[in-house]
């Protein structure tokens, strides 16, 4: 008879648990048959000893199957993208409508800000009236009609993950690559995807700070998703500096709209959207290869097709019907705006992305505790990047805050996050490696 104690002991002692036992454990997390103590011991054993590849697939699919697993009957492939999180990373808002314009169906189930990183749902909710909580019927209808929707996960999506996630948070086991993989993919695979592209961030603004850790996670995600039957590849991408030149919910939406409408294109956002979209279209059979797919994504952006679909999605989910035409009038702005002067002459060599993320949170643009209200207007814009020349008193960024005192504290924190040197540093590549 399967029991939690035997499974935990097997992993603890370096053995290989049976796949059926791991699926049983996942079901027990959702049903309550596994206690909190057992869940914590399991998480620690996995952190210290790891799971074999087949075991990781079994745990992931077992967690997926504890809730609703969506099935689609659509005249095209069902595709999505997942990012492991960073600063100024608003590519989902560009990529979902661009993929839809290229013939993919994109049921994007996204998250909120976590720690120092921003959340796609929080960014979209900076748009007045935008609703991320759709019923399943409304979600299905919108995906069928518009080919894309970006929504919050429903309570019946991989409930085992919600339980294990909370246990990991309080048991010091968040860093386990096996458990990160199962957490991410159990929710993504429950959306009934045929193809998935992963953006695994690496650097000071990411959870994975080193290329080695990022590659370990990318390989675990790709092999597990493929083992579960979903065509998947991953790009390891730079997060040693913010991806956009803004960090904060409404401010990032502004940058997205400038890029979507062609008024002021952010090259890094554009390039990464094209790279990820090219991978996704190739995986889904909508392009000959990633290069061909990237060309199709670029055309969707250049032609305005992606902007049109984004506008229709905003209207369908409760936002203004004229958002694409009048977005500068529709987004909230903070009452206090203060420049951040550089403290020295030279070149920007390093940026502490995690520190910048915490600045946004402390300004009110993120959550210190679950349930905190988010102010969509605050954050930073016009962020200087690595390799740029600066001088004492030259602005490094613009802080958007609610009060003067909050702005002053943010200015000091942003200054501390920038390292300025005498010689021109080497700027890191945006896409570091492909896994798949």
How would you characterize the overall build of this protein?
By secondary structure, the protein is of the alpha/beta class. The protein has three domains: about 5-65, Transferase, Pyrimidine Nucleoside Phosphorylase, Chain C (Transferase, Pyrimidine Nucleoside Phosphorylase, Chain A, domain 3, Up-down Bundle); about 80-325, Nucleoside phosphorylase/phosphoribosyltransferase catalytic domain (Pyrimidine Nucleoside Phosphorylase, Chain A, domain 2, 3-Layer(aba) Sandwich), CATH 3.40.1030; about 335-420, Alpha-Beta Complex (Aldehyde Oxidoreductase, domain 3), CATH 3.90.1170.30. It is built from 17 helices and twelve strands. It has helices at about 5-10, 20-30, 35-50, 55-65, 90-100, 120-125, 135-145, 160-170, 175-190, 210-225, 250-260, 265-285, 290-305, 305-315, 325-330, 355-365, 405-415, and strands spanning about 80-85, 105-110, 150, 195-200, 230-240, 335-340, 345-350, 380, 390, 395-400, 420, 430-435. The strands form four sheets. A four-stranded mixed sheet has the order 1-4-5-12, with helices on both faces. Strands 6-10-8 form a three-stranded antiparallel sheet. It has a three-stranded antiparallel sheet with strand order 9-7-11. Helix 10 links the parallel strand 4 and strand 5 (about 230-240). Helix 5 (about 90-100) packs across helix 13, helix 8 runs antiparallel to helix 9 and helix 16 packs antiparallel against helix 17. The radius of gyration is 22 Å and the shape is globular. The two termini are about 40 Å apart. The relative contact order is 0.14. The model has no long low-confidence stretch (mean pLDDT about 95).
